[in-house]
Amino acid sequence: MYMVTRSSNKTVNCTPALRSKIIKTQKKLDTGTSVAVKVEEEEANVAQPKSSSVLSSTGDCTTPYPQAVVQPKTEADTLLLPSTTRRRRQLKVEYDKDENLGPVKKEHWEPPDWRRQLANIREMRSSRDAPVDKMGAEKCYDAKAPAHVRRFQVLVSLMLSSQTKDQVTAAAMQKLRAHGCTVENIINTDDETLGKLIYPVGFWRTKVKYLKQTAAMLQKEFGGDIPNSVEGLVRLSGVGPKMAHLAMDIAWDQVSGIGVDTHVHRISNRLGWLKKSTKTPEETRKALEEWLPREMWSEINWLLVGFGQQVCLPVSPLCSVCLNQHICPSAHNFSPTKKSKSSSPHFPRTSNTATSPKGKLEAAYESLVKEETMKEETPTTPISQTRKIKKRRGKVYQSIRTNPAVKL
Questions:
Q1: How far is CA 117 from CA 132, 134, 236, 260, 268, in A?
Q2: At the N or C end, where does the chain have fewer CB atoms within 10 A?
Q3: Number of helices followed by number of strands (H, E) in the chain
Q4: Could you tell me which residues come within 8 angstroms of residue 403 by beta carbon, excluding any fewer than 6 positions away?
Q5: Which residues face 5 on adjacent strands?
Q6: pLDDT tens figures, 264-278
Q7: Catalytic one of 27, 209, 242, 338
């Protein structure tokens, strides 16, 4: 489709042959009349009705064509960049201002060398012989019990494991299972008997109260089963986010989050797996879930817990045998120097030991013994004085044994 626009503002539709003839005629004119010829492709008229964008079947050139609306040029048009550049910039602006795109995605962050560190931890944990592997929540329930009873026993073992070693938790669960670890039995068991069954887990008196309250709530609101959501689990007495996520993983086989206990919290900070150091396990959980791939959420708990029980200990970690000692930012920073034993010939006394309270006492005792021994060997020393020397020596020795922090 072609459009010829004259200075008289009349517009007609023409065939290619007629258009060529008109152009040749206009070139021969000597008048000063200006003719503007503009050729556009048919796609430029997509917005107009199809019936008005084509010629009639008779090819009549006198058929009027809808007049195009021409915007006058302004000075700003002369300052515009080429069309391709303008189009990119407009798209960028529209993208930034589009409210339907939702919040802008945060820049992904992940710690350096975390994949190598995790691979090394997997290798060190390949034997799976840590206490959590043999006596953790996955091993404390009765595999032959009904499904809802197994889930309840998983929850009970998690509640008892708070601030308690796995060996103690496993022993308490064994006694509870022999007694009958079901919702009904827990409700019907008096506090004294229940306390004897779970003793000596940490804070056993408080946990007796939590077990009774949780069992009553499960029977009343959930039909004797545990909730299948984190929101429902944290409503139970004595159940926090860590227990809820672990219960969802072990009991319901659903990964809802990372179960972060004291081991995962400590090791994550030591390995530099967090943007900034955290103070609570819950802060660590949120920080880990921001970058750790979701397919690894389920294994990270038992991996780091066993690693913390065997290698990355809370006090005096075994950095020398750890495969991550050369890529861990905290390696060899937490192992205190062992105090030398003055009584052993293999550990001579150092200046640090000599300046400690106990070292001062031992030095004073040796000096006293040497001094008073010389007096004892003197024949002029009376018997009463010798007894006083022995009594004083005993007091110094007793101070060393009972109160090594006494300052001289």
A1: 21, 24, 36, 18, 11
A2: C
A3: 17, 3
A4: none
A5: 11, 36
A6: 999 999 999 999 999
A7: 242
Query: What is the rounded distance in angstroms from the CA atom of residue 136 to the CA atom of residue 304?
Result: 13
Strands ordered across the beta sheet of 3-5: 11-13, 3-5, 36-38
Residue in the block written with tokens 């710690």: 111
Tell me: pLDDT of 341 over 50. Answer: no
pTM of the model: 0.58
Q: Tell me the two tokens of residue 174.
A: 């064994």
- CA-CA distance, 228 to 90, in Å (whole number)? 49
Q: Is 375 considered catalytic here?
A: no
Q: What is the DSSP letter of 178?
A: H
- Among residues 14, 22, 3, 21, which one has the least CA distance to residue 59? 14
| Alpha carbon distance 372, 386 (integer Å) | 8
Contact criterion met (CB below 8 Å) for 242 and 260 = yes
The residues, any chain, with a CB within 8 Å of residue 189's CB and separated by 6 or more, are: 179, 197
